[in-house]
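Quick one:
INPUT:
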C-alpha cells in the first residue's frame, strides 16, 4: 500500500477522531481589551489549547480537533456548534447594547484570500509589518484595535505551529527510522515556518495549510484556496517531481480530513472549498505550470469530492492541461468545472477591472468569482426571477399581450435590483462611519435611525483578524477585512430561479397568448391550487409540454436572452458606495431546499419540487441532448456576466466509453466555448449506477456526484438529494 493509499484510508475513516474533543466553554467577554482584540484572544485560546494530532505517515500536519467527539456526531449537528463564537463568547453586555443585539455569529464566510501573502512574508514578516504600521500617529482607535488583534491572532497561529513542532519531536523519541527522520523533518519545518518565510516546496505547502487551517477555525467554513498552482510554483525549484506530487497528495487528503463529521443537510462536513487552476498570469501569458499538472495527477490518485477544482481554460494554455482534465472528467471526477478564461477575463475588464487583476481571478464557493486577496465580489444582492414573476401574476393578470406582460416583468426586475442596490449602499455608507473611526456616529445611527449593524453579511462585531492579513490593503489601511479596505471595490449581483422563470414565460406565451387555450387567471389559479383544482391536471399537462429551456429552441431561447440580458444590463447601471461596478451573475444553488419554498409555477412544476441549478434544464425537459443545452446557454451575451454562471449537464458515462471518449468531451467543451459559452459543470454518471448505489451503498462508497457548485459522495447524501440527482436523468 502506498503512502497516499494509506492516508486516504485514514482520512475516509476519520482516524484523527481519537484526538477530537468538544470545544470547551471559555469566555473572554469581560477581558480588559477591545472587541477585536477579544475576538483574537478567543481564536488564540483555540490555537493554544486544541489537541494536536500527527497521524502515522503524515507529511503535512495540522487538523481541526475541537469538534464534538465522534460518537453521536454522525448527523443532526450544525457547523455553528463547532464555531469559535458559539463556545467562546467574546462580546459583552456593552457591545450588545451598542450593536443592538449579539451579532458575533454574523460571518458570511465566502472569502478567497491570497495565501501567497503569508508565503512571501512569513508570520514574522506579518507581525513586523503590523508593528511598523502601529507607529503611524494618525491612526484612530479602530485602526489600532485592528492592528493589535492581528498581532494576537498571528501570535496564536505561531504558537499552534510550534506546538506541532514539539509534538513531532516527542513522537520522534518513540519512533524508529524512517518514521523518526520524517517526524524530525516535520519538527524542523514547523519550527522554521512558525516565524520565517518558506524556502522549499514542502515548507511552503505546510505554511499554506496552517494559514488556511487558522482561517477556517476563525470563520468556521467556506474560506477558499485561490490559485494554488500559481502561488506554489514559486517554491517548486528543483524539488523532484515525485516528492512534490506526494506533498500535494498529502495536502489534498488533509483538506478532506473531517470527512466523517456530519454538519449539514448534505450529509457531510461543510467544507466544499475550491482550488483554481490554469488561466493566465498578470502579464497575459500562460499560467499552467508543473504544479498545475501535479495537482491534476494528485486528483487522479486521491479522487475525493473535496476540494472542488475550477479550471480556467485559456487559448494560451498547453494542450496537455485540458487533455488531462478531460480524462479525469470522463473517469467520474465530478468535482471539476471548466471556465472560458478568454471570455471571463475580457468581461471583467469590460466591467472596469484592471487587466492585471482580472487575469488573477479565482473562485469562492460554487462558481462565485473573486480576485483572491484583492476583492470580494460577494454580494450586493440577489433576486429570484420566478418569485418576481409569481408576485406580478398575483397582483395583475390583465396583460393584453405577451409583450405587455414581459414589459411589466422587466419593470419589476428593475425595481427589485434598484431596491437591493440602494439598500446595500445605505448600509455601506453607514459602515463607513465605523471604518473612519466615527464610532459614536455609527452607534448613534443604529440606536436612533434604525440603521443596520450588518451589511453584506458582515459586521464590525464579528471581525476576522487572521483572515484580514491575507488581504491586500488591510494592514496598509489598518482595517479589518469586514470593512472592505481591499483595493478592488466591485460587488456581485445574481438572478436566481432563471430556468423556472424562462420556462414559465414560454409556457404562458404558448398556451395563453399564441394558442389561447387558457386565460392567465386560469393558469395562475391552477398554480395556487398546485394543479389540484378544477382543470388543474389538464393545465399542468399542457404547460409542462410547452417548449422548455435547454433544447436549442428559439421559441424559448429568445425569451431567455431578452429577460436575462435585460436583468444583467440593469446591474451595469449601478455602482457601490465605494464606486465599484455592480457585476452581473446568474446563480441558483441548493435545488431541493429552494424548490421546497416555491409555489407551483406556470411551466407545470408542482409546489415544492426542486428547482434547476442555475441555467441547467429542469429535470425531465432535456429533449435534444447536451449539445442543445450548451447551444442555448451560449446565446446569452458573455460580456454581461462577471460574477457567477453555471450550466450543468449530466452525461451518461457510456457516451465516453472507448478510446476517443476524452476527445469527444474536449470537442464538446471547446465547441461550446468557441460559440460564446462561459462555464460548464459536467456530471459523468450512469443512472443505473445511482439506483444501485441506493440499494447497496457499501459497494459505491467512492461514487462522486456534482450537486451544483459542490460535490459529494452519493451514498453520503440524504435520500431526497439522491432522488433529485436521479431525476435529472429522466
Amino acid at each position: 500500500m502506498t503512502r497516499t493509499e494509506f492516508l486516504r484510508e485514514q482520512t475516509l475513516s476519520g482516524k484523527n477522531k481519537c484526538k477530537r474533543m468538544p470545544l470547551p466553554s471559555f469566555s473572554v467577554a469581560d477581558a480588559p481589551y477591545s472587541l477585536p482584540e477579544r475576538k483574537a484572544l478567543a481564536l488564540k485560546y483555540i490555537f493554544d489549547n486544541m489537541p494536536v494530532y500527527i497521524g502515522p505517515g503524515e507529511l503535512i500536519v495540522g487538523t481541526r480537533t475541537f469538534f464534538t467527539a465522534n460518537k453521536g456526531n454522525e448527523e443532526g449537528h450544525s457547523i455553528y456548534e463547532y464555531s469559535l463564537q458559539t463556545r467562546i463568547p467574546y462580546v459583552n453586555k456593552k457591545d450588545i447594547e451598542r450593536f443592538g443585539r449579539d451579532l458575533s455569529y454574523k460571518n458570511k464566510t465566502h472569502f478567497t484570500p491570497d495565501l501567497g501573502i503569508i508565503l512571501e512574508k512569513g508570520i514574522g514578516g506579518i507581525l513586523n509589518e503590523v508593528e511598523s504600521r502601529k507607529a503611524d500617529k494618525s491612526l484612530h482607535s479602530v485602526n489600532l484595535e485592528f492592528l493589535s488583534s492581528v498581532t494576537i491572532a498571528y501570535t496564536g497561529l505561531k504558537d499552534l505551529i510550534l506546538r506541532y513542532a514539539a509534538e513531532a519531536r516527542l513522537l520522534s523519541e518513540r519512533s524508529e527510522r524512517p518514521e523518526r527522520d520524517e517526524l524530525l523533518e516535520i519538527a524542523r519545518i514547523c519550527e522554521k515556518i512558525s516565524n520565517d518565510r518558506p524556502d522549499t516546496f514542502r515548507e511552503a505547502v505546510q505554511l499554506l495549510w496552517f494559514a488556511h487551517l487558522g482561517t477556517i477555525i476563525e470563520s468556521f467554513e467556506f474560506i477558499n484556496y485561490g490559485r494554488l498552482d500559481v502561488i506554489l510554483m514559486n517554491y517548486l525549484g528543483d524539488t523532484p517531481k515525485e516528492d512534490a506530487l506526494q506533498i500535494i497528495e498529502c495536502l489534498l487528503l488533509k483538506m478532506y480530513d473531517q470527512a466523517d463529521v456530519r454538519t449539514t443537510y448534505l450529509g457531510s462536513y461543510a467544507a466544499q472549498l475550491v482550488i483554481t487552476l490554469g488561466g493566465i498570469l498578470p502579464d497575459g501569458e500562460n499560467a499552467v505550470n508543473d504544479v498545475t499538472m501535479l495537482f491534476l495527477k494528485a486528483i487522479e490518485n486521491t479522487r475525493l469530492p473535496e476540494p472542488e477544482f475550477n479550471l480556467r481554460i485559456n487559448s494560451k494554455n498547453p494542450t496537455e492541461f485540458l487533455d488531462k482534465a478531460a480524462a479525469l472528467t470522463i473517469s467520474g471526477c465530478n468535482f471539476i468545472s471548466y471556465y472560458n478564461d478568454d471570455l471571463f477575463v475580457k468581461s471583467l475588464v469590460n466591467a472596469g477591472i484592471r487587466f492585471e487583476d482580472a487575469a488573477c481571478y479565482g473562485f469562492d464557493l460554487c462558481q462565485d468569482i473573486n480576485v483572491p486577496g484583492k476583492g470580494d465580489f460577494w454580494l450586493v444582492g440577489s433576486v429570484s426571477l420566478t418569485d418576481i414573476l409569481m408576485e406580478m401574476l398575483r397582483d395583475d393578470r390583465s396583460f393584453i399581450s405577451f409583450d405587455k406582460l414581459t414589459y411589466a416583468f422587466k419593470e419589476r426586475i428593475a425595481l427589485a435590483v434598484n431596491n437591493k442596490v440602494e439598500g446595500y449602499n445605505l448600509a455601506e455608507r453607514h459602515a463607513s462611519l465605523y471604518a473612519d473611526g466615527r464610532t459614536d456616529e455609527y452607534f448613534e445611527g443604529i440606536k436612533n435611525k434604525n440603521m443596520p449593524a450588518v451589511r453584506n453579511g458582515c459586521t464590525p462585531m464579528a471581525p476576522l483578524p487572521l483572515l484580514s492579513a491575507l488581504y491586500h490593503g488591510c494592514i496598509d489601511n489598518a482595517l479589518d477585512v469586514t470593512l472592505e479596505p481591499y483595493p478592488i471595490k466591485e460587488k456581485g449581483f445574481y438572478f436566481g430561479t432563471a430556468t423556472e422563470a424562462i420556462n414559465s414565460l414560454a409556457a404562458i406565451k404558448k398556451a395563453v397568448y399564441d394558442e389561447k387555450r387558457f386565460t392567465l387567471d386560469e393558469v395562475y389559479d391552477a398554480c395556487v391550487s398546485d394543479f389540484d383544482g378544477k382543470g388543474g391536471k389538464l393545465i399542468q399537462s399542457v404547460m409542462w409540454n410547452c417548449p422548455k429551456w435547454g433544447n436549442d429552441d428559439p421559441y424559448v431561447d429568445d425569451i431567455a436572452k431578452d429577460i436575462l440580458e435585460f436583468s444583467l444590463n440593469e446591474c451595469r447601471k449601478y455602482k457601490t458606495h465605494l464606486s465599484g461596478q455592480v457585476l452581473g451573475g446568474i446563480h441558483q444553488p441548493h435545488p431541493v431546499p429552494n424548490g421546497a419554498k416555491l409555489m407551483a409555477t406556470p411551466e407545470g412544476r408542482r409546489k415544492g419540487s426542486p428547482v434547476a441549478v442555475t441555467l441547467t434544464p429542469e429535470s425531465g425537459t432535456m429533449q435534444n441532448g447536451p449539445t442543445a443545452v450548451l447551444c442555448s446557454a451560449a446565446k446569452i451575451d458573455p460580456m454581461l456576466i462577471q460574477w457567477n454562471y453555471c450550466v450543468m449537464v449530466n452525461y451518461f458515462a457510456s457516451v465516453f466509453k472507448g478510446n476517443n471518449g476524452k476527445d469527444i468531451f474536449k470537442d464538446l467543451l471547446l465547441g461550446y466555448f468557441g460559440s460564446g459559452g462561459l462555464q460548464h459543470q459536467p456530471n459523468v454518471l450512469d443512472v443505473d449506477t445511482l439506483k444501485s448505489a441506493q440499494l447497496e451503498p457499501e459497494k459505491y462508497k467512492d461514487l462522486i456526484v456534482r450537486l451544483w457548485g459542490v460535490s459529494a459522495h452519493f451514498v453520503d447524501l440524504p435520500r431526497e438529494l439522491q432522488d433529485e440527482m436521479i431525476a435529472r436523468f429522466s
